[in-house]
Write a structure and sequence with these properties.
alpha/beta; binds iron/sulfur cluster; Sulfite Reductase Hemoprotein, domain 1; TIM Barrel; 356 residues; 8-stranded parallel beta sheet; single chain
């Protein structure tokens, strides 16, 4: 059975800045800026780059009132819904909502008690702003750690249920939940357990996952396993690098699982001693030149005639390398031979024509 037709966990749907999350809605791709939010120019520029890459909801840190106020100016210049990430000070959450944040990410346990939680809930309810409760294995309460000894999946789940209860006490149910740990198996297990207990939509991520390669592996395993089981409504791939890479990796995960298709999918062989063209340079040039395309299209770049024609035929367009040339395939049929020095240009032109 294809993964895309797998039964998804039945989560209730919420709307964040016009974007449906949960229920039957497609899995939504998120990222987070790493610029100081009060630096409006830098933050807007980064959000525009994220938008271009396909990011659908962006989170920004709001550590002070200047950042909360800056949201208004930022919102006026971008098209994505913003989630304000708040810790410790409920006034920042209220100010962020007043300045246009469409979502909050906060931990109701660390903003100073019931009265302050009530203030935030009132502001969120008034503007229909969902709140994501973000449980992080690194910041569980002392009492939960005392009970469980370590930040186990069960400890994360108990923490989440307690924090959700703090919002439900005020009859607030516009809730999304995340349970993040840098330990992949703990993350997966925690979501599985909580998924059996309630129906709020889940935001998936493996936190503090590391740099591009190690972080991609951890996130792909954690997020991928859960999505393959039908669990998860939004995703953020956490990487210690340019957040645009987070969006690219997120789409690769969703594409590999058959859940979302966006842009050019390059099918390329790893090359071997039979390779007859400079495939590394060709793949890099083609990928880079076509990175702005959003229409789904499959491009095969293969080094020789062993597996080349087979893969190239199955793709929308492809080449199989020969001695100093490549055989061009389109929609399963051989079109012509193209000289090696012309392969990148011809492929790029052809793909652009096909998607326009
Ligand atoms: Fe090697 Fe050809 Fe296979 Fe590429 S397609 S890995 S060059 S045999």
């Amino acid at each position: 059975m294809p993964l895309s037709s797998m039964k998804r966990r039945a989560s209730r749907q919420i709307i964040l800045g016009g974007i449906p999350i949960g229920g039957e809605a497609p899995v939504v791709v998120q990222s987070m800026t790493n610029t100081p939010t009060k630096d409006v120019v830098a933050t807007v520029n980064q959000i525009k780059r994220l938008t271009y890459a396909g990011c659908e909801i962006v989170r920004v840190a709001v550590p002070d009132m200047e950042s909360a106020t800056a949201l208004k100016e930022i919102k006026a210049q971008i098209s994505l819904p913003i989630i304000a990430d708040i810790h410790f000070d409920y006034r920042l959450a209220v100010a962020a909502i007043e300045n246009g944040a469409e979502g909050l990410r906060l931990n109701p346990g660390n903003i100073g008690g019931r009265r302050k939680v009530k203030e935030v809930v009132s502001a969120a309810r008034y503007r229909t702003v969902p709140i994501r409760i973000g449980v992080n294995a690194g910041s569980l309460s002392r009492s939960i750690l005392k009970t469980y000894g370590h930040p186990t999946p069960e400890a994360m789940v108990e923490s989440a249920i307690g924090l959700i209860g703090m919002l439900e006490d005020f009859d607030f149910r516009l809730i999304k939940v995340s349970l993040k740990s840098s330990n992949v198996s703990h993350t997966v297990e925690a979501y599985r357990i909580l998924g059996e207990k309630l129906d709020y939509p889940f935001h998936l991520g493996v936190t503090e996952a590391g740099s591009l390669i190690s972080g991609t592996v951890k996130n792909t395993l954690g997020i991928g396993m859960l999505l393959a089981e039908g669990i998860g409504d939004t995703v953020r791939v956490s990487l210690t690098c340019d957040p645009v890479e987070e969006v690219r990796v997120a789409y690769e995960i969703l594409r590999a699982l058959g859940l979302r298709q966006r842009g050019v999918e390059i099918i390329s062989c790893p090359t071997c001693g039979r390779c007859q063209i400079d495939l590394f340079s060709l793949a890099e040039e083609v990928q880079h030149a076509l990175s702005s395309i959003t229409t789904p299209i499959k491009v095969a770049l293969m080094g020789c005639a062993v597996n080349g024609p087979g893969e190239a035929r199955e793709a929308d367009i492809g080449i199989a390398g020969g001695q100093g040339y490549g055989t061009l395939f389109k929609k399963g049929k051989v079109v012509r031979k193209v000289a090696e020095h012309d392969l990148a240009r011809v492929l790029i032109d052809e793909v652009r024509r096909m998607v326009n």
